[in-house]
Amino acid sequence: MTDLPSLPKCAGTAPLEVVVEKGRKYGWCTCGLSVTQPLCDGAHKNGTDFKSLKFEAEEDGSVWLCTCKQTKNPPYCDGSHNSL
Questions:
Q1: Is 5 part of any domain?
Q2: Does 59 map to a domain?
Q3: In angstroms, rounded to a whole number, what is the distance separating the alpha carbons of residues 42 and 14?
Q4: Lowest CB count within 10 Å: 3, 4, 66, 84, which one?
Q5: Rg of the chain, C-alpha, whole Å
Q6: Count of other CB atoms within 10 angstroms of residue 68
Q7: Which residues span the domain enclosing 40?
Q8: d(Cα 44, Cα 7) in Å, to the nearest integer?
Q9: pLDDT per residue over 43-75, tens digit each?
Q10: How far apart are CA 34 and CA 55, in angstroms?
Q11: What domain count does the chain have?
Q12: Cis before 75? omega within 30
């Protein structure tokens, strides 16, 4: 692993709405480096030990995914960004 500053990186201070499809699998960014926040683009593979968090949508609709990377309920926002 290279010496990257304080990972996971806070990629935002508010959740992002993502429209999901029931039964489809998604990868949530855990490192904060992805340019396709809040979803993973593989940026963690450039010198980190992070892996994307895979999840399957339980129903069609919108979900609010964490971008600050401090949620206690990943990948979903739990309001942790309010205390940053």
A1: no
A2: yes
A3: 22
A4: 3
A5: 13
A6: 23
A7: 20-83
A8: 10
A9: 999 888 999 999 999 999 999 999 999 999 999
A10: 17
A11: 1
A12: yes
